[in-house]
Write a structure and sequence with these properties.
CATH architecture of the largest domain: 3-Layer(aba) Sandwich
Shape: elongated
Distance between the termini: 74 Å
CATH topology of the largest domain: Rossmann fold
CATH class of the largest domain: Alpha Beta
Number of helices: 13
Order of helices and strands: EHEHEHEHHEEHEHEEHEHEHEHEHEEHE
Largest sheet: 6 strands, mixed
Helix content: 25-40%
Structural class: alpha/beta
Radius of gyration: 28 Å
Length: 451
Amino acid sequence: MPAHLPPRPERTARRAILSAVQTPEVDDGRLARSLDELRRLAEGLGVTVIDTVVQRRDTDRKTHVFGRGRLEALKRRFEGSDPTQEGPPGPADGPREADLLLVDNELAPGQQFALEKALGAPVMDRTAVILEVFESRARTHIARLELEIARLEYAVPRMRDLDEPDREGGGARGERGHTQAELRRQQARIRRAALRKQIEAARAADDMARERRRDVPVAAIVGYTNAGKSSLMRALTGDGVLVADKLFATLGSTVRAIEPETDPKTLVVDTVGFIENLPHHLVASFRSTLEEAREADLLVYVVDASDPHRENQLAVTQRTVADLIAERADDPDAPLPPSLLVFNKIDRLDADARHALSEEWPDALQLSAFEPADVARLRATIEQHMRRGHQRVWLRVPYSAGHLLGEVHGAARVIGETYDAEGTLLEVQVGPAELGRLEKRGVRRVAAPEG
């Protein structure tokens, strides 16, 4: 690990107590959903959650996150000898009941420090857990760069001079030199600036790639994490996209063509899954994956039909997509791309539940990513959407511009081909944007040839 980042808690055989402070604005349902998500995230990292502790307080901003009585009760559960540490045993008779505290709140650096000092054990807040999950699942170059910046921004305020009496170098007042923490903060700032330059270069390359395929329709699969997006992606494209029953099983976008090929040819983008209560400064980690969604011709919202919180998950996804797309759009009031709602994992519902879902969401598709007939219906629906606005016309490519024939074949479906004295005549089915681009290149729209 780079010297400017503090060490993470060891991943081996961690046993954790999951905790939260419930403030008046957080109802029981929202708290239960958030705690369940954090538990599943932790389990994906190999952490075993042995108990859940919740305390109701008027605010979670107090220096001591928990009240004195609750803190003492927690402390007793962390007392004992730690079998992973070398040296003589501690004062307790046996091993610790738990060796990690998970807090389903965002902790200020001082709060985290106070808790770790009181418990004698590492503490991870919601941000730290999500960061660790992101780092273990990031696939794309930009996602990894953005996550390192997020990790630096989280770590820098937590850098302290614990057990570091030595100072190095000069330049501080009284020629005392810089502390180790100051030097690490300086290294972090330098690294952060370098990362931002790398991200700008990578985004420019991605923008060029999108520009090269801008005439090919794109459907972006978006949805709550673990809704089955990657399973649908694999079913639509036949590609070996990672499919795993984990929150944030993938982080990064994957672009593939639908197979068998649709008319018109369509690309599908699998984006990162969303989650409730995502810390604000981690939203940047979504931006690179949502660049594709921002340019998509169709947003396919995928929802786990069997999840009891499906409506809330859909709302979280739609709100986050709208916010992020508006943030990067030239016109913040521009409409979102058209959308299609898909309820996945429908095989987990009985007939009555399916009927009720149809009554509530009559325009949504119900399917299972593992049923070929269901996937074929989704494919046909996407194809039908992409054909909207397409028209059947004749185009003439002058003989002097024969190199444009390849562009016509790439931008339109060629139905027929003949010749006249001026050039090659092609009967095509083409969308308005592609037709406009071809006409700017010198291809002319003509009347149908006689005979």
